[in-house]
Amino acid sequence: MKPVTLSIALAFCCGIMHSCKQPDYNPLRPHEETMVELQKNMQPFREAMKIAPQKFTINAGTPQTVKCNNGTTLDIAANSFRDKDGNVISKGSVNLEITEMYKPADMVSNIASTVTGDGYFLQSGGQVNISASSNGKPVYANKYSISFKMKDSTKYPMSLYYGSKNEDSVLSWKDADRSNIGTTARYDNFQYIFDTCTSFGYINCDRLPKDSGTTHIFLKAPDPSFKVINTQIYLVLPAINSFVQNRIRSFDEATNTFKFGDDGSNVPVGMDFKIVMIANVNDKYYYFDTTGKTTKEDVYLNAHPTLQDMPYIISKIKSL
Predict the structure, then answer these.
(1) For 117-164, what is each residue's pLDDT tens digit?
(2) Domains of the chain: residue spans and CATH
(3) What is the chain's alpha carbon radius of gyration, rounded to the nearest angstrom?
(4) Three-class DSSP category at 16
(5) In a 3-state reduction of DSSP, which class is residue 226?
(6) Is the dihedral of CA 309, 310, 311, 317 positive or negative?
(7) What is the separation of C-alpha 127 from the centre of its chain, rounded to a whole number of angstroms?
(8) DSSP 301
(9) For the chain, give me the number of helices (H) and strands (E)?
């Protein structure tokens, strides 16, 4: 009888365990769930801010020049395009879509921040986002030349950087292979010219500013209704034409405080800055901005967002 009793006991225990099992596992990690919620709340702003790309159709296998509205120029060679297997595309039409971003307003509008992968601000001479396709299929870069147009004469050496989005959808940059001739710019007639560009996607004309030390900026929200899932903070450094958005993990929920520094944004000392805050709280839109200068001591600020309509907020973003 003992085996029967054991079987009944096991069946009883299994029944209890089955009836009391945990809910199905959610494959999204908490960080990703927060990111999804933030993107949902920011979508109205991003749709209103986004810059439409310029569109071009060119013939593969033929050298030609593409000139964009703000001065970016692509010199396409006969072998500049390749397919996913690395084969040169030498005939047919190629469709290009190019978004130019020469000032912080353009960068913020396209969520194209200007920091390296390890969080250091770059001085930007302009950036673009390029996509290419043919017959509905992606086209990849083999090698082409790209130049960025400057408004004023400049003495700074610039290098080529390629961008990618991280887990917070923050764009970060990595410099191109310096062993390739042409990835450091020639400066000619108010243009930075790179002879060797081997990628489409996000491309930036950048330099690392002189290291002046780093600091932190803390922005305290007025109450708990402003939180990481519905509020976005932008830190703009006008002197180096650069910006970054806050990281999710930089928010302290206990104090309603957003932080820049040591979190993918090493804030340089001695820089004039502008902080911009936008929020979507229960489908009501809020805006706040303030200016200051970074010092060796941490900077502490209090946000006072006001209820605004979308056109007002977009006009403020476009003025950056």
Answers:
(1) 888 899 999 999 999 999 999 999 999 999 999 887 777 888 899 988
(2) 51-207 (2.60.220), 214-318 (2.60.40)
(3) 25
(4) helix
(5) coil
(6) positive
(7) 11
(8) E
(9) 4, 26
